[in-house]
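hey so i finally got around to running the thing on that chain from the lab meeting. sorry it took forever, my laptop kept dying and i had to restart like 3 times. anyway pasting the input first so we r on the same page abt which one it is
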Amino acid sequence: LQGIRTGLAPVGKEEAIRAAGALLAACGYVDGEYAEAMVARERVATTYLGMGIAIPHGTAEAKSRIRRSGIVVMQYPEGVDFGDEKAHLVIGIAGVGDEHLDILARLSASLEDDDLLQRLLSTHDPKVIYNALK
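ok and heres what got predicted. didnt touch it at all, straight out
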């Protein structure tokens, strides 16, 4: 549950990505430099998926900065601007090897359920998010 933050005040896109990177580092998934690789990745192509969700992750060059695979979830009820869209869930991911593909596939499957997605966007309880995405 230490990797889940709910009810966050809106911030800029890069600040939200850096916050997700810092939480990935605090949870022991990555080293402290990984957040900058996440920002660099976002500058190349957006990690906004749609439905109020962004999944920032580092560049391929930053793979060596990943200690173990994991995700963090940052919930912004008022949203963070990702171009013309607002992300209400910023899910930072780090995957060893190709594990990020498995993580993305599992997240995509979970987030296709509209009722579940609405609960994740509105809950104040980190356990709800944890149980939905574990």
